């Protein structure tokens, strides 16, 4: 196959080899490890061919500038900044929010910024991280935050300057009302405590009908959104906030090497992902499928580590006395991929995304029956088909 391209000196036929894309797409269809294993679709790849190629360090790329303005508007904030990854967005935003040490960040003990970002807040921001266990076992509430925030600034103290929430966390939704309560309280302090959200999967909370993007966004001074999680873009995240804050983020993004040149190749497919998958309403079907998978596991006698509120299913393999390596091996044998050692402690996590095929789900159901069905039978419970 070729594509015809017109240029200054006439026109050329360029070879177009889509075999790598077909391979990647069919692998994604059987991969339950995360919602970032998706393959960019053809509209996304097409948008890369058509994008502007201005320099974003000099803020001259029209596709990136337009996309940033579009995202700020969608969220009801003043400004936005493209970052290369969710980790970069979180770390740049936290570094920009922390201006005068000593300072502490209060966050859910399980949050990505504490457990999965290579210690970034301590190395890049020099912040004390106060990881709080949610007392209700699900999400942080105002009581948890008030109990653990440091409001004093005596000589021994390290004051809480940022409250960093995460939504969704482990696929569970932080209710809007709890976020609003924490936000009102943080903003009433003197000085106000900066409200930050790792919103890598905020899309999912919105798709689940738990609040609008603007309602959640109004509770935060800044937050990140990821275009690779569930939406299928090849790269990119966005930091949203005020004009003054985004100006600071632009400095820090540059300092960590995140200022990029032809940023349109990142911004263009990311915008397609937001428009087609999030605004196009594709996440709801994925969440319904996740609930069906969770129900199937439970109907066979399995239990879940966390409730399935969006697109994640957390099989409790320990409770079912299933060896994690054996589970991953059996999954591989039936032709699907689950977490093996990529993230320790996440081996029972299955993540639905819009490219998972019906055939992959049937194979998964077969795997459930293989690991649980026989056990139910041996316990004297009726054998399931
Ligand atoms: C909640 C959350 N925040 C941030 C990130 C980091 O994103 P990235 O992998 O693009 O750095 C992830 C990655 O999975 C995540 O799950």
Automatic annotation (TrEMBL):
GO biological process, one term: glycine biosynthetic process
Cofactor field: pyridoxal 5'-phosphate
Modified residues (N6-(pyridoxal phosphate)lysine): 229
Keyword Lyase in annotation: yes
Domain Aromatic amino acid beta-eliminating lyase/threonine aldolase, first and last residues per copy: 31-319
Pfam family, one: Beta_elim_lyase
Family statement: Belongs to the threonine aldolase family.
Descriptive protein name: Aldolase
Organism annotation: Lachnellula occidentalis
């Amino acid at each position: 196959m070729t594509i015809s391209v017109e240029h200054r000196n006439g026109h050329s036929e360029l070879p177009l080899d889509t075999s790598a894309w077909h391979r990647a797409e069919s692998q994604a269809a059987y991969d339950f490890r995360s919602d970032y294993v998706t393959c960019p679709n053809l509209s996304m790849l097409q948008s890369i061919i058509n994008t502007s190629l201005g320099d974003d360090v000099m803020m001259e790329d029209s596709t990136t500038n337009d996309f940033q303005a579009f995202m700020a508007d969608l969220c009801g904030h003043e400004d936005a900044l493209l970052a290369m990854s969710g980790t970069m967005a979180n770390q740049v935003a936290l570094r920009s929010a922390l201006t005068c040490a000593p300072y502490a960040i209060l966050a859910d003990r399980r949050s990505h910024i504490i457990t999965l970002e290579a210690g970034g807040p301590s190395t890049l921001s020099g912040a004390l991280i106060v990881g709080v266990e949610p007392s209700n076992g699900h999400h942080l509430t105002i009581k948890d935050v008030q109990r653990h925030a440091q409001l004093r600034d005596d000589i021994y103290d390290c004051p809480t300057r940022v409250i960093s929430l995460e939504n969704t966390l482990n696929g569970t939704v932080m209710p809007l009302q709890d976020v609003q309560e924490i936000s009102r309280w943080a903003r009433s302090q003197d000085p106000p405590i900066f409200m930050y959200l790792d919103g890598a999967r905020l899309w999912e909370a919105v798709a689940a009908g738990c609040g609008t993007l603007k309602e959640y966004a109004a509770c935060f001074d800044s937050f990140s959104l990821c275009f690779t999680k569930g939406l299928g873009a090849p790269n990119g995240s966005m930091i949203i906030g005020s004009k003054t804050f985004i100006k600071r983020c632009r400095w820090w993004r540059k300092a960590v090497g995140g200022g990029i040149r032809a940023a349109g190749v990142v911004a263009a497919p990311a915008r397609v992902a937001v428009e087609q998958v999030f605004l196009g309403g594709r996440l709801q079907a994925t969440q319904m499928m996740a609930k069906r998978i969770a129900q199937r596991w439970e109907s066979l006698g399995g239990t879940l580590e966390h409730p399935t509120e969006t697109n994640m299913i957390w099989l409790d393999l320990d409770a079912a006395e299933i060896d994690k390596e054996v589970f991953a091996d059996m999954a591989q044998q039936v032709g699907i991929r689950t977490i093996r050692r990529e993230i320790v402690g996440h081996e029972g996590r299955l993540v639905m995304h819009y490219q998972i095929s019906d055939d992959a789900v049937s194979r998964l159901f077969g795997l459930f029956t293989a690991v649980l069905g026989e056990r139910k039978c041996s316990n004297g419970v009726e054998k399931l088909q």
